[in-house]
């Protein structure tokens, strides 16, 4: 059974490596029958809110620069505080993430945690990589999936002296495809489950959980935004 789901991949890439991972994630998601996928850069995203607000799943990724997500991607994250956060437009959507660095460790975990925290602020459902650690046996090699051994999301590695034509390597791109497929499948499962239960596809319109309401529903954007006018109340 093919369940239609909309998936958006939002990414930043300063020097042409992370875009390869973003494309691979999109390829993987598009391989699932019923999934429609769009790639949007972090710089374009503020002009594409309608697309993002309508998505079932948003997969986000950026290179790790100085131990955290690159500045243009952080600018996109901050831009979501005005409408998407205040009105909880992304509540109940699926989120997943990826990063890329020149180093094997390279503090990439911090970037994945940053993405996961961002998703939680938006009350999204985080989907992890869903794969064991890679290259940790005497008989495994660099061509294995998840060779850098992350679990929160996908983390690639591109040698600094190589261009995006050859780095990150095929094993990372195949790991990224895996993440894309997994997110599309989980999005379909959630969408089909909600349809069976008679629940809306996403609940962004009515807002997320209301701290004052034990039922946890129905807060309006104006009620939520009791802070300084125009600023998100984090
Ligand atoms: C300003 C800057 C800071 C960086 N900091 C890190 C880092 O903390 N960890 C890491 O593994 N790589 C780091 N790198 C390397 C990049 O993450 C790596 O080159 C990556 O492939 C760049 O992706 P892009 O081509 O999509 O911009 C840094 C690169 C730059 C330019």
TrEMBL record:
It comes from the Bacteria. Residues 7-184 form the Flavodoxin-like domain. Residues 199-234 are annotated as: Disordered. GO terms for molecular function: electron transfer activity; FMN binding; NAD(P)H dehydrogenase (quinone) activity. The keyword Cytoplasm does not apply. PROSITE patterns: FLAVODOXIN, FLAVODOXIN_LIKE. Pfam families: FMN_red. Keywords: Flavoprotein, FMN. GO terms for cellular component: membrane. Its cofactor is FMN. InterPro entries: Flavodoxin/NO_synth, Flavodoxin_CS, Flavoprotein-like_sf, FMN_Rdtase-like_dom. PANTHER family: FLAVODOXIN-RELATED PROTEIN WRBA-RELATED (PTHR30546), FLAVOPROTEIN-LIKE PROTEIN YCP4-RELATED (PTHR30546:SF23). This is Multimeric flavodoxin WrbA. It comes from Bradyrhizobium erythrophlei. The lineage of its organism: Bacteria, Pseudomonadati, Pseudomonadota, Alphaproteobacteria, Hyphomicrobiales.
